[in-house]
Each structure stands twice: as C-alpha cells, then as structure tokens.
Amino acid sequence: MSRNKLQKLGLDLPLFPTTSVGSFPKLPALARARNEFAKGKITGAALHAEEEKATAFWMETQEAIGLDVLVDGEQYRGDMVVYFAEHMPGFEIGDLVRSYGNRYYHKPILTGEVRWPGPITVDWWKFAQRLTAKPVKGMLTGPYTVMDWSFNEHYPDRKAACLALAREIRKEVEALLAAGAKIVQIDEPATSVRPEELPLVVEAMQIVTEGLPGYFITHICYGAFRRIYPGMLAIPVDNFDLEMANNQLSLLELFREHRFGKDISFGVVDVHSHVIEEAATVDQRLERALAVLEPGQVWVDPDCGLKTRSVEETQAKLRVVVEGARRLREQHASRPVAAR
Ligand SMILES: [Zn+2]
C-alpha cells in the first residue's frame, strides 16, 4: 500500500530502505561553538556557520555509508521540544527541569495563543537536500509531545493546547512539502506514556497530515505498547518508526496477535549502548521481523536518535544498519518470486 504511495511521490526506494531516526551527535567544534555562543563570546552567525559545517559532515557521512533516506542530523537543535517552542510565539522558555533519566531541559510554558511564525525547519531541510540526490526527511516534533513536555498556562486543558499546536505545526508540514520534501517525520515520542490520551494523539496527527501529499512517519519511543497497540495504528501516518532492539523485539508478539498494517522503520541497533552490534545479531533481528511482517513493510534503522553516542559509535552503528539491509536484499533477490 505505502509502496504505491512512495512511487506516486516519485520515490524509488530499494526493498528494506535504510534510514535513521533523526539526531546525530554534535561535532566537537559545534559543541564548543554552542558553549561560546551561550556565554556571548561568538555571534549567532558564527554559530550558524558551525551548524552548517556539522550538517554537511553528517550528510557526507550518510552518503558514504550508503543510507537510502537521509536526515539533517538536527545539529541546530538543543532539545526537540524547546527548539520548536523557541521559534513559536505563544511560548516562554521556563526554568531548567529534569525529566526522565538524565534529560534536563528548559521546560517551555504556553502563555498565549500559539502561532506558526513562518518556516522553522525549511531552510535546514533545503540546505541538507541540496547536498544529496537521496531523499531527505523533513523532521518535526509532533503536537502531542510538544504539549506534553510543556507547561500550559493559557489553554483550558491539554486537549485544547494540543489541537492548537497541531493546527500550527500543519503549516510547517505544508511549508516543507511546498519546498519539495516528500517524506516528513513527525515525532511523537510521548505517545507511549499515557495510553488514555491516545485518541488525542490520533486527532492531532489527523489535523497535521490530513489530505497532504506526503509520506508520513512518526517515531514513538518504547513505552506502554501493550496498552496502545493496536489502537495506535489509527494514527494517520504511513510508517511507524519504533524501538525494537532495546526490548528484545517484544513488540513482535503484539504484531502476531494483531497484524501490523503499516510500514515500519524497524530499529535493529540499540542507541543506549556503546556496544556495536554484531552482523549476526542484526540478521537475527531482521529474520524475526520477517516472520511477522511482509518484506515490503520493513525499513531498517537504529532504535532512536543517536545524539548521545560518539561520532565513531554513530558511524559504526549506521554501517551495521546498512550492511544488515544489504544482506537481507541479497537473500530476497535470490529467492523465487512466488516465495517473496
Ligand atoms: Zn525514541
């Protein structure tokens, strides 16, 4: 189904397309520049130049490794929610708070009517896309997650805040599509935390994507999938990007009980571990995936964003992903057509 959609959009991807979830580590020179900018020692233009250099490095890296669908690496972002809040009127940036794990961030506060200020990510998408002939995904944080990770002092309730954000984020999606993006990923990592709010995630994503000519992906981090599956399949996207490796592929059991009817970006490497996966481990994970999923449904990628790994670990993990998909393609090419 979705393969037809990709073809209609002019995207001729191989079987088992490879991609990554979004973030890559900041290069040391960029990390230094961000620090110096925060202390007022360098200008915004100097920081921007470093962000461009780092983005170009990651584009070259992905090309060299041989990924099929590229990302800009989010070198210009600190936090995935704060970045959008900083750009959208209606938000103020609050004090430093701690969320799960060791994530500290300046939690945004909705203090007024949220508004799309004009393109936020489009120039970065264009910059990255100019550097490659491969498709580059547009990358946004979804309305539910932006709402969930912010304080709300303006809207009557969570739903009103989320739907208002959805209407504005849709405008960013439209701007990306108008610029030429064909694949847009709208991350909703918070979806798996409060199962009772799944209908709100669905309604918000409807507002963001309905009737738009793109191939849509959403990334959801690992969480209470037992309680949101299969209901989450109602989220109107073409492809779910899911963490499979770090939970021993336990989601496959759920897919066995209720067919997974969408495309999936199947995480085969753990982003929390320094260890680089053996080829055999990746092969085994993909083999287990294909016992439950159709070949045409499966994309191959890391579990989650790689920004907490080192540059070398990131490169090594991406290589493992690409080589795993390549071996799988070879296997499938040698099978008789009827058995595919
Ligand atoms: Zn994740």
Describe the protein:
Helix content is 41%, strand content 14%. The strands form 2 sheets. A 6-stranded parallel sheet has the order 3-5-6-7-8-9. Strands 1-2-4 form a 3-stranded mixed sheet. The chain contains 12 helices and 9 strands. The protein is globular and about 60 Å long. Helix 2 (28-38) runs antiparallel to helix 3 (44-65), helix 7 (158-179) runs parallel beside helix 8 and helix 11 (279-290) crosses helix 12 (311-333). The mean pLDDT is 94. It is of the alpha/beta class and 340 residues long. A hairpin with a 5-residue loop joins strand 1 and strand 2. Zinc ion binds at residues 189, 219, 221, 243, 304.
Give a concise summary:
With about 350 residues, this protein is of the alpha/beta class.
User: Strands of the largest sheet, in order across it?
Assistant: 3-5-6-7-8-9
Total of DSSP H or I helical runs spanning 4+ residues: 12
- Distance linking N and C termini: 16 Å
Succession of helices and strands: HHHHEEHEHEHEHEHEHEHEH
The counted number of beta strands is 9
Oligomer classification: single chain
Which stretches of 5+ consecutive residues score pLDDT under 50?
A: none
- The global form is globular
